[in-house]
Design brief:
- Pfam families: MS_channel_2nd.
- This is Mechanosensitive ion channel MscS domain-containing protein.
- It is found in: Membrane.
- The protein has three domains: 177 residues; 54 residues, SH3 type barrels, CATH 2.30.30; 85 residues, Alpha-Beta Plaits (2-Layer Sandwich).
- The strands form four sheets. It has a five-stranded antiparallel sheet.
- It has 361 residues and is of the alpha+beta class.
- The chain is built from eleven helices and twelve strands.
């Protein structure tokens, strides 16, 4: 019992001292979050210390000798599991610290999003590998599993083929996820249009991708979709965008006055980046004309703001200052069928009539 109690106290003391050292290192090196992130691993660190010391001193303590094998096996499993947990926490701290330093130095948002996507996928791969290795190590600690290992290795080729066929779609998504991460096709934070839905890429894993739409919905789809189907990526390259606003107006609409009004609206709109604007008549029909305005903005969010502001304010201005420019419907009185009136001599005469004039209302 003295050995057991001393082991627990020694573990707590070493854990406390290590945490104090990491805290002081974090205060001295405020430019990097590495030391602060490493403090997240203090629990698995203490588990590793405690399990290792208990496993090493258990044979000399001679406690519960009837259950010697079971307790030793349990301590070994705890040691392997906590060591895997600690490795994942350390790897996560190193990766997050590297990404934070990179994001702080580089101002290019596209490059930062690309590195963030790659970092998250790399971390998922590392975690999966560590978990698989730890699980295999735990299984190999059992004598029965060692004996079964030889027979399993003999049929490894056949099992690999069967597993590959059965998990074909899963493997395809995993390779597609790696292709997206290192091929720079789509990144976390990119604005995309998928199946007519506009949204922002929120999460990318090895098997699926989540898009958050403008109305706060989440669309989840396999990552293989992005490697086999076309989609719009508005954040690819430069985020600058050109937006279009259409109006259907009467033929008498004041086009020159509308150009001046468009310029005034854009000058008062903070979302307009000042690069370019234009207003032109792009189509005509027997009853209306189609007027198109082109405006620019620095990204997809601002282009939406500019478009709705221009559309709303232009319609309000036309309704107030130039109501005749709004589209109207041509109407006319109904034409009655010609009536047949009998003549005095018994013959029938067709009464002539005139089509009424077409009015506009």
């Amino acid at each position: 019992m003295i050995v057991l109690g001393s082991t627990v106290l020694l573990t707590l003391a070493i854990g406390w001292a290590t945490d104090r050292l990491l805290r002081k290192a974090d205060e001295r090196n405020s430019e990097t979050p590495l030391w602060g992130l490493l403090r997240r691993g203090r629990i698995p660190y203490q588990l590793v210390l405690c399990a290792a010391m208990l496993r090493g001193s258990y044979d000399q303590a001679k406690l519960l000798e009837r259950h010697h094998v079971g307790i030793g096996q349990g301590l070994t499993l705890v040691l392997i599991g906590s060591a895997a947990w600690l490795v994942i926490r350390i790897a996560s701290a190193i990766v997050e610290s590297s990404y934070s330093r990179y994001a702080r130095v580089h101002r290019d948002a596209a490059r930062v999003r690309r590195v963030r996507t790659q970092v998250e996928l790399i971390m998922r791969v590392v975690s999966a590998i560590v978990i698989v290795v730890a699980s295999a190590s735990m299984l190999l600690t059992f004598p029965a599993m060692r004996a079964a290992g030889a027979s399993l290795l003999a049929s490894a080729g056949l099992l690999g083929i069967v597993a590959g066929v059965a998990a074909q779609s899963t493997l395809a998504n995993m390779f597609a996820g790696l292709q997206i991460a290192f091929g720079d096709m789509v990144r976390i934070g990119d604005t995309v249009v998928v199946d007519g839905e506009w949204g922002t890429v929120e999460e990318i894993t090895l098997t699926f991708l989540t898009v958050r739409t403008w109305d706060e919905r989440r669309i989840t789809m396999p990552v293989s979709y992005f490697t086999s189907n076309p989609f719009e990526n508005w954040s690819r390259g430069t985020p600058q965008m050109t937006g279009i606003v259409y109006w259907h107006l009467d033929h008498s609409a004041p086009i020159e006055a509308m150009r001046e009004k468009l310029r005034d609206i854009l000058r008062q709109c903070p979302a307009w980046d000042g690069r370019a604007y234009s207003l032109q008549v792009t189509d005509t029909t027997p009853s209306t004309i189609q007027v198109r305005a082109l405006v620019t903005a620095k990204d997809a969010d601002d282009i939406w703001t500019v478009r709705v502001a221009v559309r709303e304010q232009m319609i309000g201005w036309l309704s107030t200052e130039h109501p005749y420019a709004l589209p109207r419907v041509n109407t006319s009185e109904a034409v009655l069928p010609p009536s047949r009136v009998p003549s005095p001599d018994g013959a029938t005469l067709r009464r002539a009539y005139e089509f009424p004039r077409t009015g506009r209302g």
